[in-house]
Amino acid sequence: MSEAAGGTYGPTWNVPALTPERVRSVRFSRTPIGRRGLSEDEVWRFVEHMAAEIARRDAVEAALIATSEKYRNALRTWQQEQVDRRDSVAQERSKKRRPDVELVNMMSRAQQEADALIAQTQAYCRQLAADAQEQADALLDNARLRAEDAAERAVHTYRASAGGEYSAATEELERRLAWVRTFIASLGSVESQLSTARQALEMEVERVVDIAQPRERV
Amino acid sequence: MIDASRLQKSWATIAQFGDQVPLFFYSTLFLTNPGTREMFPITMSAQRDRLVSALGRVISQVDDLAAVAPVLQQLGREHRKFGVVRDHFPAVGDALLSTLEHFLGSDWDDELARDWAEAFGIVARVMIEAADAASDTPPWYNAVVTDYERRAPDIAVIRVTPDAPVPYRPGQSVSLETGSRPRLWRYFSPATLPDPDGSFELHVRAVGGGMVSTALVQSTQTGDALRLGAPVGEDLTLDPDSRGGIVLIAGGTGLAPMKALVQQVAAEQPPRAVQLYWGGRRHHDLYDLRAMERLTSGQSWITFVPCVSTEPTTGSYLQPGTAVDVALRHGDLPGRDIYVCGSPGMVAATLSALGDAGVETASVHWERLGSNEEASV
Question: In B, which residues are within 8 Å of A198 by CB distance?
């Protein structure tokens, strides 16, 4: 039947768009000899059927378009939201990456104050150490001078008392003995003093360093 | 392609702000990534100088980064002991760009930002690759003090035993952090070859105001925990292919690497000729005299000459004068390789004395990392 219907339109039948109305208004040419053509009822029934079918499909298409439009809008909105969110995350991150200049400067000032305090304590420690060194040097030099003095005196005494027993070797022995005795005695007298001073100094240095560098891993 | 001249020009502008620049950089880094503050000591002055000089070095050779690659690789390897290197680079890069933008003001544009980001990216990649390439050795060694001996008011000899063999060569240095001074790393040079248990000796002089050396000398006890970094420095190591005689000139605890070198030469077959001049101001500065006498007595290949510069030496075999004075007076220097180690002042004085004397030496070696006492990482 469809073949018959299609065949009768002919190649010249120009269809802009096949709407139900158009289908309904189509007129077929009649066969010239009596009723030997198509059954008119059948043709009209077919036309009616086709119009209904097109109408149904139009409705489906319209519904599909509406749905797809809805989805397209939803997608567009979602994409925009994503872009907005990414922007705001990036802004948030760059805000985090770029802290407020005042905050940075405040942090820098705190650091500089800490640096200055530590430099001061270090200079103080250096001074303490240098002073101690100087005192120790002076004590040693002093002990040596006294020892040399005592050695000279010992030689003097020996020469005065030796008489005929004199020997250069004994004199040298007397000299060295007096030197060492006096040196040790001088050091001994300052040793306790020194060790007390050293302990006090070390405690002081420890204290100062601890201020500079708190032991957070105790 | 990085526009090198533009980068260098912008760095020149930045450099005019002096200490403000690294201050701003570190404050930004610490504010954006508070975790990074933990990696640095309380006082940051030395750290800031280091950052600026390292950056300046890289930027000045940015069109020939192969030239600075060894420096960067060394930095990358050394930073392993501070924790994960890779994870911190983005934060450091962000803080750097933020700092540059702040100081360059209207000179800052997208193009310059891209150039700086690219240059930083290269630096980061070289450092990370070097750190990764070194990952077959541990980033640090845990160690314990197994012996401590105070030899003078300001000098201690400390034996440390690491938990794994530290693969140093005599003359190299290892950085050290004590449990009592966290995050402060200082270089020390092992003074002996490692014992079979991996332990070795360190010689420490308390430097006035020095935070690590004073703690080590004054309050170290057997059993104290330390961390040791990977061995570094090639300035004082022996040329393995050379058999020529060497002259060692040491001041104070600058003896440490020399003692290790002497032990190394002693194991050679036959040992090369060594002259060792070791100087101190006073007798008690020669804190390791007995051990050195044991090490050198009866050995025909070594001449050991201890020297004292400010006390009389009459009646003893010690030579009067500084180590370099005595070496110039008595030594056989021409044509020799000369190794110098001591305080920065001693090294400078020794180099200038050698220069003034016009000795035709093969070459003079000294540690460029800084002194072995209070040099910083």
Answer: 153
The answer to whether the pTM exceeds 0.80 is: no
Written as six digits, the tokens of A45 are 């029934």
Structure-token pair, residue A215: 């032991």
Q: What is the pLDDT of residue B273?
A: 94
Q: B211-235: per-residue pLDDT in tens?
A: 889 889 988 999 999 999 989 888 9
| Contact: B32, A96; criterion CB under 8 Å | yes
Which has the closest alpha carbon to B367: B335, B344, B334, B336? B344
Measured between beta carbons, the chain A residues lying within 8 angstroms of B42 are 114, 118, 212-214
Alpha-carbon gap, residue A124 to A116, rounded angstroms? 12
Residues near A153 by beta carbon (within 8 Å), at least 6 away in sequence: A178
Collect all residues of chain B within an 8 Å Cβ-Cβ radius of residue A202: 218-219
DSSP 3-state assignment of B334? coil
Which chain A residue has its CA at the smallest distance from B38's CA? A216
| Helix locations, chain A, DSSP H | 2-9, 20-25, 40-97, 101-162, 168-212
Instruction: Name, in order, each residue with C-beta under 8 angstroms of B134's C-beta and a sequence gap of 6 or more.
Output: B76, B77, B80, B230
DSSP string for B56-117: HHHHHTGGGHHHHHHHHHHHHHHGGGGS-SGGGHHHHHHHHHHHHHHHHGGG--HHHHHHHH
In angstroms, the separation between the Cα of residue A157 and the nearest Cα of chain B is 23
Tokens of A111: 């650091």
